Amino acid sequence: MKLKDSFMTQEVDDVQFLVPLGQEEFRGLVRSNPTAAFIVNCLGQETTAEEIVDAMYAEYDAPREVIAADVAGILETLRSIGALEE
Q: What are phi and psi of 80, to 5 degrees?
């Protein structure tokens, strides 16, 4: 899976925003916290949920189960707005 090309990210004052560019049904902005921004950045290339969990586990001091739950929740949000190419 990866982020659709019809969505772009923009950083403003250390805050990441996800913006639809084209004819997406979702018409709004998604403001990402640091965890969500990390996940969205991982989605810049083809990846899996497990690979994202691995990358976050290497970066953050948190239990793997907590990271996996965060990744699953954010991926579900991205699916719900049509931002993922799977």
A: -65, -25
Predicted local confidence at residue 74, as pLDDT: 97
Token pair recorded at residue 57: 């586990």
The residues with which 35 forms a beta bridge, in sequence order, are: none
Residue 82 to residue 6: CA distance in whole angstroms? 10
Strands (E), the chain: 2-3, 7-12, 15-20, 30-32, 84-85
The full set of domain ranges for the chain reads: 2-85
Contact 1, 48 (CB under 8 A): yes
Specify whether the CB–CB gap between 82 and 24 falls below 8 A.
yes
CB 13 within 8 A of CB 26: no
Q: Which 8-state DSSP code applies to residue 28?
A: S
pLDDT one-digit tens code per residue, 61-85: 999 999 999 999 999 999 999 999 9
